[in-house]
Each structure stands twice: as structure tokens, then as C-alpha cells.
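Example 4.3 (complexes with small molecules)
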Amino acid sequence: MSKLDLTAIRAKIDDVDTQIQTLITQRANLAKEVAQAKYAEEKQPNFYRPEREAEILRQVIQRNQGVLPDETLTLIFQEIMSACRAVQKPIVVAFLGPAGTYSQTAVFKHFGHSIQTIAAQTIEDVFHEVEIGNAEYGVVPIENSTEGGVNQTLDCFVKTTLKVCGEIDLPIHHCLLAMTQDRSSITRIYAHQQSFAQCRAWLNANMPSIERITVNSNAEAARRASNEIGTAAIAGETAAEIYHLHVLSAHIEDHVHNTTRFVVLGKQDIPATGQDKTSLYLSLPNKMGSLYHLLECFVKNAINMSKIESRPSRQTAWDYVLFVDIEGHIQDTTVSKAIQELQAQTAVVKHLGSYPRVLR
Ligand SMILES: O=C(O)C(=O)C[C@]1(C(=O)O)C=C[C@@H](O)C=C1
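Answer. The structure with prephenic acid bound is encoded below.
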């Protein structure tokens, strides 16, 4: 390519950039108008509207016929919406900190970077920050494709009045991180219990006799490994950058498709989008056929169940509660009918939230 060609193409790029910038500014001004319209309707409106954001992102994917993958375009539009939201009012999101956790990555993936964040110390604290209004939303891990349900999160749902407003899928790739580059000098590994479980086979094969110490989060593990000689942490690459650690081994998770599903906690009910999910908490009477009748309510109403998980009720020994995810929205007639039928036969049915299904 001649120098002239390059100059000419760059001039075209400058031209396109000018148009993009003008259009983004135009969009941000429209978002300000939306804010005024919302204030005219309500005194304290919600500026974050997941149902509208899901609709915009689905349109982006539908329109896409170009060279950029759907995920790339989605990320760009998520950042644009994040910036437009911040023009209206910056939202505050709590997550399981410190900086560098997978939860923080999930927060930015979903809300973009134009937000304020609170790094909470535990999953319970994330719920608490939202409950007392320090944060408008919270992001917590709920299940992992290798290890199953995150019990601390499920247990918090028993007591909370918060709603699930959204879900986030995040592929998880673990690394072994340390100050040293010499793996043989490591005598202790820090990690979150879920990360130890997701890397069990790798650890047993590669570091069988090294002490394993469970901490509250992966980033906390990385922070400790950056302060203590002879220690390593299991965490992601973001934590390696933040805590200036070497990656001794990458991709140490036992399953290549290792993915964690996070949920967004909030106080608002989300309108239906046509592609939704509903999360329920159920307490079944301890009698014959209970589970059979539960399944029957969904099958009869042609509702697909995407998850069922049981946890001890913590009220009585050997008494269990169920966490169920179904396709559809509580406003869909089939879903509300199934829930009414369930209520007629189970002790407790708590609607944890209906929200847009993640794009998979
Ligand atoms: O449509 C709205 O309600 C808006 O506030 C605009 C907008 C956007 O940027 O498109 C911004 C924030 C909402 O979460 C959804 C969409």
C-alpha cells in the first residue's frame, strides 16, 4: 500500500470518527431528554432499564452483518449506554471485592465503565449495601458450570426482599499467580473455595502437597500473595495486573467451558421483553408427590425449567428449599398460572424476579 493510500484511508477514518462522535453526543443529549421525561412521570425514577437495554442489544445483534463479532459490538453499545446513563445519573453498583475479582469484571461487562462501585467484603455485604440504599444494584455469583450453586448467595435469597433484575454470564479462566517466577518455591496457595474446586484436578496433579488456604475472594487471594513470600493465588489476569503478580500457569481450570453466572440485585420489577427468565424460591411440603406436582405445574403450562437446586431450609433438620429458574416472565399468563397452581400446593412460593435472559 502506498503512503498516499494510507493517508487517504486515514482521512476517511477521521471523517467516520467525526460522525461517530457527533452521533454519540446526539445520543447522550437524547438520554438527557429521556431523564427529563422520567422525572415528569416520577419523583425518583429508575434510570437503569434492563428491559430497554436488552432490547437495544438484541437489535444490535440482529443488525450485525459486518466484520465485527456480536460480542464486540455488544460491548461497544454497552459502554455507550453506560455513558448515556451516567449523563442522566451515575448509578452505584456493589460487588464482591476487592478490586480484581471476577465479580468486578461481571459488573463492568453488564453495566459498562461509567458507573460508581462499592467493593464489599462478603456476598452478604453486597446484599446489605443494596438493602440499605448505599448502592442501587449489586452483582453476586449464583452458579458455576463446573461447581454448581454458590451457597452463600442462595442462602441470602431466603431472607432478602431484593429482586433479581438481570443475569450475566462470564467465562472464568483461572491463573496461578505469585511474586516469584519459580513455582517450586511456593509453599501455600490462597483462593476462594469455588476456585479451589474448579481447579481441583490441576492442583492435585501439579501441586499435590502444597497447603491450600480458603479466603473470601480471588482478589483477596492475589492481595495476600503480593504481600507474602512463598505464596501463590488462584485468580484472573485482571488481579495479576492490579497486584503486580506473575502468571505462573494460565488456564488451570479443570473444564474449558468454565463459566460463572452472576445475578443483578435491585429493588425494581422489570417489565417483560419476550425473552425472559423467572427465578423462584419454593418450600415444598414434606409429603409424597410434592416434587412430582411441582414439575407437573410447569409441564402442564409448557414452561421450560432451566435450573433446580436444593438447599437445607435451616429452619428444621432435613427440611429443604428449592431454587428454580424457568423461562418466561411473571406477567406471562402461562407463568402466572403455573405459579398460582404451585401456590395452591406448596407452603411458600417467593418470586425472586423476572428479568431479560442473557444473550447466549
Ligand atoms: O430508554 C431509557 O429509558 C433510557 O434511559 C436510555 C438508555 C439508553 O442509553 O438507551 C439509558 C439507560 C437505560 O438503562 C436504558 C436506555
